[in-house]
Design brief:
GO terms for molecular function: ATP binding; protein serine/threonine kinase activity; protein tyrosine kinase activity. The protein is an alpha+beta fold. It is built from 5 helices and 6 strands. It is globular.
Length: about 150
């Protein structure tokens, strides 16, 4: 939680507060008015919001890529999210995308090329086949999960 509270990058959801008592955790994050990307792509947002145009889709695709690049290359120690999927990309009121749900994230202890990823973790359908079969993390699987 301490690391998550220190991350400040515009495409990563901000954690404002954390309270842990008696085995329960209460987290306060910034509010994301437009739900998540899965809802937007499948038109499950309240008030019949307009369909995403191509400019907005490009912005939404670029945001998580910038956030992942920050976690891998600009934050020390690097953080491996391990759960990137459309329901974990939240959309602000201006549709600025933010990466959320760091529940299975790992802190890397070396450079990101060839880290043992504690074998399989993530969501079926979003895990790159190479990561699942080899139990070995490389940066390339993130391209797979954004498809």
């Amino acid at each position: 939680m301490e690391i998550l509270g220190k991350i400040r990058q515009k495409n990563i959801l901000k954690l404002y507060a954390c309270l842990m008592r008696g085995g329960s955790s209460f987290l306060v994050y910034e509010y994301m008015e437009n739900g998540n990307l899965f809802q937007a792509l499948h038109r499950q947002i309240k008030d019949a919001k307009p369909e995403l145009d191509w400019d907005r889709r490009y912005k939404i695709a670029l945001g998580p890529a910038k956030g992942i690049a920050y976690l891998h290359h600009d934050y020390s120690p690097p953080i491996i999210h391990k759960g990137i999927k459309s329901s974990n990309i939240l959309l602000a009121d201006d549709y600025e995308p933010k990466i959320a749900d760091f529940g299975i994230a790992k802190v890397a202890e070396e450079s990101l090329t060839g880290i043992d990823s504690s074998c399989f973790a993530g969501t079926h359908g979003y895990i790159a086949p190479g990561e699942f079969l080899n139990c070995f993390f490389l940066e390339l699987p993130y391209c797979f999960c954004l498809e």
